[in-house]
Write the structure tokens for this entry.
Amino acid sequence: MIKKLLLIISLSLFINTTYVSTVYSHDHSPRKKLISKLKTEILELGGDPIKKGNPFKADQDYIVELQDQLNQIIEEIKKKEGIEKVKQEIIEEIKKFDVKPVNEKESFIDLDKEVIALRKQLDELKLKQEIEEAKAALIKELEELGVKVESKSAVDSDEEIAKLKKLLEDAKAQKAKEEEEKKKAEEKRIAEEKQKEEARIKEVKNELLKELEKLGVKPKLDTSDVDDNAEIIALKKQIDKIKAERKKAADKKKAEEKKIADQKEADRQKAIEDVKKEILFLSETPIPEYEFKTEDKYIAALRKQLEEIKKIKEEEELKQNAAIPEWYLNMPEDTVDVMYVRGAHTSADIDQSEVVAIERARIKLARNLQSDINTRFETVAKEAGVDGDLTLKQEFETVSKVVAKNVSLGGYKIYKTKMAAVADNKFRTYIVLEVSISSTYKNYIESIETNEVIKKNLPKLKDTAAFKELEQYVAEFGA
């Protein structure tokens, strides 16, 4: 017996030790951690974790139960949040009616009942609004029909709307009756006016027939087969056609006469202008037209004036030729670096004579310099392979024009000048200008180096033999 008792005690100790070890190891397994996590989440959400109950229940089954409980709590929270959102939306709509929501007047334990009460309140407010809008529409329509509504809110809404509808039907019936009477009156008026119109048509027809007879045309209509209105229209068309044909013939004749008169006037003006141009070309002023009463006398006077001017000019030319300096007739030849140009002018004002003579020489100078620059830079552009660039070519010409103009304004020297008295107390100035070509090209090169369009292609241009030759030329003669 003692042996059996010791054996039982030993087995009990062994089993107990094994169970404790197993429990201890389970408490530190991932499943135990998951169970702890689930319980914590349930508690944080305001729930009470279910008990495991049976200590021998598998942890996996307990985890499933806790997970189900957690999911159920989450769903209930979501449902509650959704209901709360709907509640707030309903409350916002109710407040638009300037009315306190029902939940501000009384308290609700159940959220669902609170939402139902709020929704009911909102539906009642909307219904009331619809009734008021319907009443307003009926009242407006009645007022448009001229019916004044004395009371608008003395009875129940549905009853009031019914009364308003009945009132509207009566008003419409009265309106229809009035319109019918008005229509009959209008028809009567139209009938009376038609009778007057028929009488007037007959009167007008007779007047038109008389007008046709005055025009010497017999009417083409047989008045027995047509009604008065159609007959009137046909008569008017016939009269209008005859008048149009006659007007067309008269306009054509008038246009032909005007054409002949215009041509005659154009020929006269051309003759006058031709003579005036000759007189102006000879630096004289044509006599004014207002001094003559007829066209032919004015043309004859202009021609006589022209002949007298020509005769005087011939005499002046003979005198001037005698006074022309030898150095003006035989100007010095251009050199490698110097260009010469001349100018002359005759005027009663000695200063004006000099100013215009210089101006004429400067115009020649600018033209010659620009032509020379353009010719040389066409060669440069061709060698650089950019002669097909129209924009670049235009910039070359623009710069050359500016440089030539600047030189003609102040980059020249007076080589020789002479003033001589001529006929009719007038003076004639002779002048020869000289300019350095190398300094002109120096200015041109400086200008293109700052030009935004040209300087993009400047490396290509400077790499050509023609440009290098030009730079060498400027360096040699510019010094």
About this structure: The radius of gyration is 60 Å.
